[in-house]
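Recall the central idea of this unit: under ordinary conditions, the amino acid sequence of a chain determines the structure it adopts. In this exercise we apply that idea directly, starting from the sequence alone.
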Amino acid sequence: MRRRRRLGCSCPFCTTLPPSASLTPSHSPTGSNLQTNTSQTSADALVCVRDVIRSVGERGSVSKDAARQAQMIVWKCGEAAMEGHRWQDAVDWIGVALKLAVGGVADEQNMAALLKKLALCHVQLRQFDEATEACRRAAICQQDAQSSLQLTYLLFLIHLEQGHAELASKQMENMAAQLQEAADPTKSLQFLLTTMDRSFKAGNQKVLKKILGILLKQFGSQDNHAWRCIIVMALRCLIRLVIAADTNQLDASVYGEVQKYIAAALTPLEALKRENAPSLNLEPELTWFSQTCWNLAVKTCAEFPAIACQFFSLSAKIASLSVAGEGGGLVSLPALKNQKISLFIAFLGEIELARDAGQSGTDHIQRARTLLTGKTLKVLQASS
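Accordingly, the structure predicted from this sequence is:
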């Protein structure tokens, strides 16, 4: 029995394209007696196709109009099968629709659309060789930028479902370049979020991390409330992916990567705090980032003391956002204490590292001086 895997239908073909996009037939059936209701049963559709052919031609001699009308019926049946996740039925219907192609520019576009639908069905059935062949045939057809993007997504999906992380990442880079050329941030975000969802379901953290990195690279500088929330979410996901690895595999470079992500989160977090939107509850985010810094600082104290100092410093900076309320007032005594402890440990750690390093410890001295700004001294003196 053929193994079927129901992966759902959250791809760009179903979630990001308007009904008028290239995945619907570009020709309209003629004849008022032709029924194309997608709720028709397969048997009813076959009867309609047979009647159309018999009414126009004899012994297989069918006009182009009749072939187009028949293709429309079969196409709709294939789409109905896809919507019902009957992937093998959809493959059969689409195969018939492809045989009813009559040529011409419009038909070539329809061929490309049908082949991409066929490729998607094969992916759902885990028939990856057949899916790759359908993509190859679709690439030969005339396509616009949108169709080319969809084809790249399908190739990404094929490699992702097979566990080929490097090949999937390569297609993801191609897709990112195409999205950037389109200069449509909303559409780009939809595609990236869709690929993130599929990567998560496939359990491929390497590809998921790649997608998050692309999202940050393309949209990290977006300066509005919605995009700041997305960037903070992406950074939090990246940090979780990195620190979710086995503790024994974490080295200085990995901790440095986490620090880079946390430092990058400071700017959008500060902006969101200044906005003070009534509908935004920022405290859970601030608490998560600050606590993560603290936990990593404690974990790295023995083996990487310099890195631990920087984590304590980051924890203090994030805690300072929890301390400041409306008008700059102090509203959270626990946050103030956390900030004070983090600053104190970071300062003493830098001094100790500078003493151990001797004449080469100037960087630690400089970081210690940076910690002792006027505002920091007030924090250290507060809540005593």
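Residues 354 and 361 are 4 Å apart (CA to CA).
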